[in-house]
């Protein structure tokens, strides 16, 4: 009822947070309009999502999410646990295809090309949109082989020296090279958690993706390793389009240029990070950011 | 009847002692201002253990020494000239006495002293049985009372119970280990006896297997070359593995990675049913269906294939091992964390690339372990080869021809009239020992491989 009509938006601001946090009291939020604040100087859009709904079996996890993800910037997804951040992130490189019973509706484009076009090659798509996961998941192979994995399967290197160059470059970009240059041929699982996560980033970079998706990349790391990764994300922003899911408000504030706030499967508000953290338009965004629920 | 009495005794002791402990503990608790260290059920269990363990020890002691005591008692009843007569004769007498005492009666006539001894033995047995039962009960009750007297608020019954349980578990694993050691020791002893007849060099490096029958023994025992049997075993096992590994592994990969949940729910139990079919049925199937079919196929393509051959036995054995390989591999593959899959798929790898480059390498140690276990199963399999390999212990390299294996020869040497003093039957122990060493070696290699990869991957 609350979300049925666009006019009801004003009412939302007065709704008590308790009522919002309890999913049973919220009617199906179809028809809800995300509050959007554009950037002061608009950036070119790389990924565009239009009315994306995701179902796990008969359960709907995302409701009509529409968003533009700008190029060469970091977009942060925030929101309470279970609100669908990971689900939406996985839509962007079709990792939801690997989940039995998951179904995606709506339209997502990368540079205007429909990602869910049946003719599209998923394998190639995932090389263009790379992903870094919550828990570092290096393969049980050497550091070198971990990074060389993508270039090998996509045939990116013409020769052995070519491949070596790609691996070294990627490790350098992930600011890991200096720490591992003497042990490229030892197993990647022997690295520390933070190093493993940077290895995973290097692995993702090695296939020169255009977009990098990161699902809580620092949640398993200590503050120092986290700071390193954040620094790295900031550097990578110059060349890549990055989407990061995070539970840390500070992290979102530090690394991202735009922030999107999800709640109960809907995208509530989306805007420049600075504005989202200082003067959000939505009461719920404000409540979440100030830690009043979630 | 006797075992019923013993079981009833133990059950009654258990129930009574537990209840005694329980009620005593409650009584102490209500009569005391101190907080009880352990709950009443622990006191109950302690009393029960203190009661049962001594009683059980008495019964076990009788189990071990009873036979000897009975034997010496019987001997004391027999006239000395019988006792001192030759061992075979004495054995017959003792057997007859035994039969009289159990009331089954004897074939043929029995001597009066045998009848008397039988009667006496029967009475002796009855008497000792009831005294043992009484002794066990008495000791149990003493234990019960002793423990009951110890129950006090500060008694750490919980911790003591833990210690006793730990001890009992250690005893159980000790029994398992001792049994293994015992089996190996007896294998070894008999095998060494065999090597007093035949030199180990002739056995391990001999290329001809033709043991003479014991009946015709005249100093010439025949030839006991192991190599034809070893070769047959290896050939049949390799054929079996050539069937089982690809089929088993592929079906495991399909079930673990590709099959929709519904297919998996049906197919996995179906494959596992194969493991429940007794091996003699596979042998039968090989003999009646597979062998003739292979031989017909051979006629068609112009290769002479015998109906009973290494090939027939190997294929049947391979089919038998498929579920073994597939269900072990399937478990191992599904244990590879989802994060590995996601990592690879997220890089744009296809499913088969992911399986080949990430999942199988990660699962390799476990899979190799499964393979080696399957090989040792193939080495030890008997029934299929007895029926379908043709029993031709000749060193031949043609898998389409009949062959024989170590296990088949063990069966052959031990069936029929056997006299465990001749090399004809003692050779079975040498063969068994060889088989044991082979499987042991495989298991050691399997462990080593698994450990090596585990170190690398964790
Ligand atoms: N594989 C799945 N099968 C069924 N339901 C799922 C599956 N994955 C997620 N869901 C459901 O979809 C909803 C959104 O989940 P999602 O993982 O996207 O949340 P999230 O925002 O990433 O949460 P978190 O911050 O805890 O990671 C949840 O209600 C969850 O239970
Ligand atoms: Mg998540």
UniProtKB/TrEMBL annotation, chain B:
In alphabetical order, the GO MF annotations are:
phosphate transmembrane transporter activity
Query: Among its keywords, does the record have RNA-binding?
Result: no
Q: Which SUPFAM superfamilies match?
A: MetI-like
Q: Which PROSITE patterns match?
A: ABC_TM1
Alphabetical GO CC annotations of the entry are:
plasma membrane
Q: Supply the alphabetized keyword list.
A: Cell inner membrane, Cell membrane, Membrane, Phosphate transport, Transmembrane, Transmembrane helix, Transport
According to its UniProt record, where is this protein mainly located?
membrane
> Where do the ABC transmembrane type-1 domain residues begin and end?
230-446
Q: How does it sit in the membrane?
A: Multi-pass membrane protein
**What processes does the entry annotate via GO biological process terms?**
phosphate ion transport
Q: Is Hydrolase there in the keyword field?
A: no
Can you say where in the cell this protein is located?
Answer: Cell inner membrane; Cell membrane
Alphabetized InterPro entries for the sequence: MetI-like (IPR000515), MetI-like_sf (IPR035906), Phosphate_PstC (IPR011864), PstC_N (IPR022182)
TM spans, by residue?
43-65, 127-147, 167-185, 229-256, 277-298, 310-333, 354-375, 426-450
Function field: Part of the binding-protein-dependent transport system for phosphate; probably responsible for the translocation of the substrate across the membrane.
Family of this protein:
Belongs to the binding-protein-dependent transport system permease family. CysTW subfamily.
Its protein name is: Phosphate transport system permease protein
Q: In the UniProt record, what gene is named as encoding this protein?
A: pstC
């Amino acid at each position: 009822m609350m979300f049925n009509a666009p006019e009801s938006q004003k009412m939302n601001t007065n709704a008590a947070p308790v009522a919002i946090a309890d999913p049973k009291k919220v009617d199906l939020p179809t028809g809800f309009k995300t509050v959007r604040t554009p950037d002061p100087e608009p950036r070119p859009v790389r990924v565009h999502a239009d009315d994306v709904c995701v179902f796990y079996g008969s359960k709907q996890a995302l409701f009509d999410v529409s968003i533009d993800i700008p190029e060469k910037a970091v977009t942060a997804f925030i929101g309470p646990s279970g609100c669908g951040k990971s689900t939406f992130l996985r839509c962007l490189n079709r990792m939801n295809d690997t989940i039995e019973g998951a179904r995606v509706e709506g339209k997502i484009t990368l540079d205007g090309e429909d990602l869910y076009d049946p003719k599209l090659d998923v394998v190639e798509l995932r090389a263009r949109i790379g992903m870094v996961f919550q828990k570092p998941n290096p393969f049980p192979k050497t550091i070198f082989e971990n990074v060389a994995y993508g270039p090998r399967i996509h045939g990116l290197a013409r020769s052995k020296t070519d491949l070596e160059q790609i691996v070294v470059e990627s490790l350098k970009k992930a600011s890991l090279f200096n720490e591992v240059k003497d042990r490229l041929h030892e197993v990647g699982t022997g690295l520390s958690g933070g190093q493993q996560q940077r290895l995973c980033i290097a692995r993702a970079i090695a296939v020169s993706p255009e977009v990098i998706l990161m699902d809580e990349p620092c949640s398993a790391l200590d503050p120092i390793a986290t700071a390193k990764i954040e620094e790295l994300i900031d550097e990578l922003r110059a060349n890549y389009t990055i989407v990061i899911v995070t539970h840390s408000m500070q992290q979102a504030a530090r690394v991202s240029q735009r922030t999107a706030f999800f709640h109960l499967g809907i995208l509530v508000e989306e805007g420049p990070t600075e504005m989202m953290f200082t003067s959000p338009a939505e009461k719920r965004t404000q409540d979440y950011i100030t830690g009043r629920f979630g | 009847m006797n075992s019923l009495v013993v079981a009833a005794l133990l059950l009654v002791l258990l129930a009574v002692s537990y209840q005694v402990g329980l009620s005593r503990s409650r009584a102490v608790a209500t009569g005391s201002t101190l907080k009880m260290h352990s709950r009443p059920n622990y006191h109950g269990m302690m009393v029960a253990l203190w009661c049962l363990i001594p009683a059980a020890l008495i019964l076990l002691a009788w189990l071990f020494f009873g036979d000897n005591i009975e034997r010496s008692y019987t001997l004391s009843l027999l006239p000395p000239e019988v006792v001192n007569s030759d061992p075979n004769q004495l054995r017959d007498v003792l057997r007859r006495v035994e039969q009289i005492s159990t009331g089954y009666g004897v074939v043929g006539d029995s001597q009066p002293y045998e009848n008397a001894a039988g009667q006496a033995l029967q009475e002796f047995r009855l008497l000792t049985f009831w005294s043992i039962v009484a002794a066990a009960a008495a000791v149990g009750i003493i234990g019960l009372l002793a423990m009951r007297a110890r129950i006090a608020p500060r008694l750490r019954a919980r911790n003591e119970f833990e210690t006793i349980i730990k001890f009992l578990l250690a005893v159980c694993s000790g029994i398992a280990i001792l049994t293994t050691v015992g089996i190996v020791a007896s294998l070894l002893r008999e095998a060494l006896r065999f090597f007093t007849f035949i030199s180990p060099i002739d056995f391990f490096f001999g290329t001809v297997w033709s043991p003479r029958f014991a009946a015709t023994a005249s100093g010439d025992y025949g030839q006991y070359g192991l190599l034809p049997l070893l070769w047959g075993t290896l050939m049949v096992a390799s054929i079996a593995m050539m069937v089982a590994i690809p089929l088993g592994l592929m079906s495991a990969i399909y079930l673990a990675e590709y099959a929709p949940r519904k297919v998996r729910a049906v197919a996995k139990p179906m494959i596992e049913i194969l493991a429940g079919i007794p091996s003699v049925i596979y042998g039968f199937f090989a003999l009646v269906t597979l062998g003739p079919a292979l031989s017909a196929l051979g006629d068609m393509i112009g290769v002479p294939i015998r109906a009973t051959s290494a090939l027939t036995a190997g294929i049947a054995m391979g089919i038998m091992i498929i579920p073994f390989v597939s269900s072990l591999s399937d478990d191992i593959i599904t244990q590879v964390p989802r994060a590995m899959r996601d990592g690879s798929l997220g890089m744009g790898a296809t499913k088969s690339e992911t399986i080949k480059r990430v999942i199988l390498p990660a699962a390799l140690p476990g899979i190799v372990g499964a393979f080696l276990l399957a090989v040792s199963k193939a080495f030890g399999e008997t029934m299929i080869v007895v029926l379908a390999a043709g029993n031709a212990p000749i060193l031949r390299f043609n898998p389409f021809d009949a062959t024989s294996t170590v296990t088949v020869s063990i069966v052959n040497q031990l069936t029929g009239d056997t006299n465990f003093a001749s090399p004809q039957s003692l050779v079975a122990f040498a063969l068994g020992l060889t088989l044991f060493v082979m499987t042991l070696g495989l298991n050691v290699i399997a462990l080593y491989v698994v450990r090596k990869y585990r170190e690398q991957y964790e």
